[in-house]
Amino acid sequence: MQIQRSANHRIVPWANGLGVTADVFLWPPDAGVWIWRLSIADVTDDVPFSVMPGIDRHITVAQGSGMALTIDGAPAVRMDMTSPPLSFDGESTTTCRLLDGPIADLNLMVRRGMHVGSLRVERLTAGQTLTTVVDDVAVVLLDGAIRVAHQDLQPFDAVRLAGEATTFEARQPSVCAVASVRSI
């Protein structure tokens, strides 16, 4: 298990150069080509998303009022912090319209072909616990405060899991995202 504090996330430009994202975890770390990537993007304007061929994307609103995504010309999908994560192909033409000011979104990106990813959001009451399963690779605290292995986490802190069950305890009402990746 590895704890990554939000202050230590590496800030990088989007592939299309229109924004920045904070890399939370890449797997494998320090590899030229990652299998999966978990990042938090700051979206400050209505913008197109980067096109990422061969990547399956999973996204959720992590902070702010929300966004409407138009994917390949289909009707816009409105998302806010109460919406379930949305999955779509990285090669899709995707545009974002902010609902009411800047947001942060959490992205799990997985290279298609050998692995499949998913993202889920867990809402915990004070004192409630969350126990991860074998396919869960990371947990990111979006709101509130949780504790794991005698360490308190703050919003946007993350934990890289080691393939074994890990228990998190909410210190107050909290929202966290759980990224899962499995081989196919």
Give a brief description.
The chain has 184 residues and is an all-beta fold. It is built from no helices and 19 strands.
Helix content: under 10%
Q: How many beta strands in the DSSP annotation?
A: 19
**What is the rounded distance between the termini?**
24 Å
**What's the helix-strand series?**
EEEEEEEEEEEEEEEEEEE
Largest sheet: 6 strands, antiparallel
Question: How much beta, percentage-wise?
Answer: over 45%
Strand order of the largest sheet: 2-3-4-11-6-9
Count of helical stretches: 0
The CATH topology of the largest domain turns out to be Jelly Rolls
Mean pLDDT, to the nearest integer, reads 95
CATH class of the largest domain: Mainly Beta
Radius of gyration, CA atoms, in whole angstroms: 16 Å
Morphology call: globular
Class by alpha and beta content: mainly beta
Number of domains: 2
Characterize the structure shown.
The protein is mostly beta strands. The chain has two domains: 7-112, Jelly Rolls; 116-183, Sandwich (Jelly Rolls), CATH 2.60.120.10. Helix content is 0%, strand content 57%. It contains no helices and 19 strands. The chain has strands at 2-4, 10-13, 20-27, 36-43, 47-48, 55-63, 67-71, 77-79, 86-89, 94-98, 103-111, 115-124, 129-131, 136-143, 146-148, 151-153, 158-160, 167-170, 174-183. Strands 2-3-4-11-6-9 form a six-stranded antiparallel beta sheet, with no helix packed on it. The two termini are 24 Å apart. The relative contact order is 0.23. The mean pLDDT is 95.
